[in-house]
Write a structure and sequence with these properties.
- By secondary structure, the chain is α/β, with parallel strands linked by helices.
- The chain folds into two domains: 18-43, no CATH class; 52-304, 2-enoyl-CoA Hydratase, Chain A, domain 1.
- Helices cover 48% and strands 16% of the residues.
- Helix 1 runs antiparallel to helix 2, helix 6 (127-142) runs parallel beside helix 8 (167-178) and helix 10 (220-227) crosses helix 11 (234-241).
């Protein structure tokens, strides 16, 4: 069963009417309802506020990393473990082919259903997850294959065990190491980009965001609790944080906004996967035209240009 958000109620009603019309073979009614649906989608999704975009980024039907991997990759093989502690299932690493291009895909995986969410730790990696990701990138560097990183996490896991095993160091190590990898790297925020949990696989030559994704230093819930001690101000916090792709693109923090289907990736997963695939392949083609020195220099300039200061 599809899940509908509050502001999608009219769309849900039209789609239910369409299913009924199809079941009774009423083609004229189906055609009329299809036109009504198209108009409603344009009206609803053409005027979303920041909080509604946050809801879409967290939509339970939204495709996760494994959905994209299964839709895009061929002859894929999963890489497990950090060779130090254990295999963190909140991060998945696959080597395989995308349209004939050998590549490594690394993603943060939230999991569906209670058992899977617990198994994947709700997409919140422990330090061993980030160390696994770094191991996979180093493997890709060894064989000169490009890397695609899919960001989708509420944040790095803040538990006691994670801190004891060096959560902060693991994230910092990834930032340091990824900045100097001698292969093309592309990162895409496919859902939630939560603070350091997202940054740990966000250092790349190209950083893009899906149309309905967010990237934030803290969750709006955490922000409203800290600043106002009032959970009712989540919408106000969402707007103040400037977490939408449009906000980040305006401040030159990301390279591109990927045009996922207007009705959302959760309604057209295959179309969303095509968008991700083409952006990755086009980016790799352009990055392959650069010499190694140019690749590293452009990445360095991209990283040091973040932020602003005055004297």
């Amino acid at each position: 069963m599809a899940t509908y958000l509050d502001f999608e109620s009219r769309i849900e009603s039209i789609q239910q009417d369409m299913e009924s019309a199809k079941a009774r073979g009423d083609e004229p009614a189906v055609e009329i309802l299809e036109k009504d649906l198209e108009k409603e989608v344009q009206k609803t999704y053409g005027s979303l506020n920041d909080y509604q975009k946050l809801q879409l980024a967290r939509h339970p039907d939204r495709p996760y990393a494994l959905d994209y991997i299964r839709l895009m990759m061929e002859d894929s093989y999963e890489i497990h473990g950090d060779r130090a502690f254990r295999d963190d299932l909140a991060i998945v690493c696959y080597v395989g082919w995308i349209d004939g291009v050998k590549c490594m895909v690394i993603g943060e995986q939230k999991g569906r259903g209670t058992k899977n969410k617990i198994r994947r730790n709700f997409g919140m990696p422990n330090p061993e997850g980030y160390r696994k990701a770094l191991r996979a990138v180093k493997l890709a560097e060894k064989f000169d294959i490009p890397v695609l990183m899919l960001i989708d996490t509420p944040g790095a896991y803040p538990g006691l065990g994670a801190e004891e095993r060096g959560q902060g160091e693991a994230i910092a190590r990834n930032l340091f190491e990824l900045a100097n990898m001698k292969i093309p790297m592309v990162s895409i925020v496919i859902g939630e980009g939560g603070s350091g949990g997202a940054l740990a696989i966000g250092v790349a030559d190209r950083l893009a965001m899906m149309r309905y994704s967010i990237f934030a230093v803290i969750s709006p819930e955490g922000c409203s609790a800290i600043l106002w001690n009032d959970p009712a101000k989540v919408e106000q916090a969402t707007k103040a944080l400037k977490i939408t792709p449009e906000d980040l693109y305006e401040h030159k923090l990301i390279d591109e906004i990927l045009d996922e289907p207007l009705i959302g990736a959760h309604r057209h997963k295959q179309a969303a996967a095509e968008v991700v695939k083409h952006y990755f392949l086009d980016s790799v083609k352009q990055l392959r035209e650069l010499s190694l020195e140019e690749l590293l220099e452009k990445r360095y300039q991209k990283l040091v240009s973040v932020g602003a200061y005055t004297e």
